[in-house]
Here is the input.
Amino acid sequence: MDLEKLRGKLDCGEYFIPEQVGLESIDDLTEQFGANEDDDDWHEFVGVRNPAPGEELLETDGDALLKAFLAVEHWDPALGDSLAKWARCVSPRER
Here is the structure.
């Protein structure tokens, strides 16, 4: 996977809306562990790693994921599955 190309499509080089590239939101984790004031539709891309033994895999491969990121023209927080749909979502660069 070409991580430089992927990072070039991220907002501010690190943020994305997972639903736009076929990934799940972390909303299920915030429901399980609790939400905080930093939770919103934007997710931070940290990197790619091999899964640990017994860890679930994505239902896509790296090439398909990269293709999904490269197809994004504009990140749209309205497509996210945030717990705070009523809030005006802003890009992390607007914070």
User: Anything to note?
Assistant: The beta strands are 15-16, 43-44. The chain has one domain: 3-77.
